[in-house]
């Protein structure tokens, strides 16, 4: 088999609608502006926080306990701020006039980045300094424990889309703020309070809207079913609130530090399209598994559901494998006979490479092992793809 094939990406009929692009956001600025300039409704950024640490991915669902480097957050202060200024300038170019940006950061850089955002977006476009407060993690005896992140919310213009009604939650049966609990003439439970000579009445289904302090969304615990193993993963509930409030149905959401793929996963579930970028091949591997694991009913698939994974240059690869194949009237069949890989295998796919150098799988399996088999009754497949948990991949021509 020929293993010298080097496609520029892969396309699945579901998992989208959207794209993941493997590459450095700053280096790709011109390309991103050309494709998405003034088209994006919402940008969420969860960049490195300036910690000086390295972060990794712990592989979930594998029998082997693997820990794979994801990225190093080790830029000096000046280089970090220069990088973020370039990224935020790019974001301003990508957003529609009705668009908004949410920058997720913590105490280390929030003050400095707010000044940069004031400079790029304008002080008048600042909307909120959102405090995401949580209870997880350790406790300090040297200072008050740091239990919140900051999310800086800016709009591009006064025409920005914002839908508070989309993020309201029912009040529920709980008594709040010294309100009087009663039952109205129709037997419905309600709460009332008198203020300024007027009586205000609220029902269980009356919505309560978030303030700029979000303490109702928990940080992810170690065994949370959402966990992908990516060290800095954020909960879907956090992105759900942001996407519902600041992007219309069918809108385009961008995340230029994609990481674990939470933005893409939530955008897809909420009927938005997405474009996500990350420089780490480990992120590519996690995003592929996360979006494909969601699955789709084949009878309901639309062309717009397509997931594109783009990689202008293939990551270095240490995968070697022996694959047997057969082609007859019943289709194309392949079997993984053996493989060697430092990081194990995360995905095996059977498909073909089109004229644009895009690999289009007809069948795939996650966490393949020796003996894994794939088949394509259409007889169109002629290429096998193997991916390891670090995001590296190799293609074999049958």
Order of strands across the widest beta sheet?
Answer: 14-7-8-6-3-15-16-2-17-1-21-20-23-24
| Quaternary | single chain
Number of DSSP strands?
Answer: 24
Largest sheet: 14 strands, mixed
Low-confidence stretches: none
Content-based structural category? alpha/beta
Distance between the termini: 6 Å
Mean pLDDT: 92
Specify the overall morphology.
globular
Percent helix range: 10-25%
Count of runs of 4 or more consecutive helical residues: 6
- Percentage of residues in DSSP E strands: 35-45%
Helix and strand run: EEHEEEHEHEEEEEEEEHEHEHEEEEEEEE
- Tell me the radius of gyration: 24 Å
Task: Tell me what the structure shows.
By secondary structure, this protein is an alpha/beta fold. Helix content is 18%, strand content 36%. It contains 6 helices and 24 strands. It has a 14-stranded mixed sheet, sandwiched between helices. Strand 15, helix 5 and strand 16 form a beta-alpha-beta unit. Helix 4 packs across helix 5. The protein is globular, with a radius of gyration of 24 Å. 37% of the residues are buried. The mean pLDDT is 92.
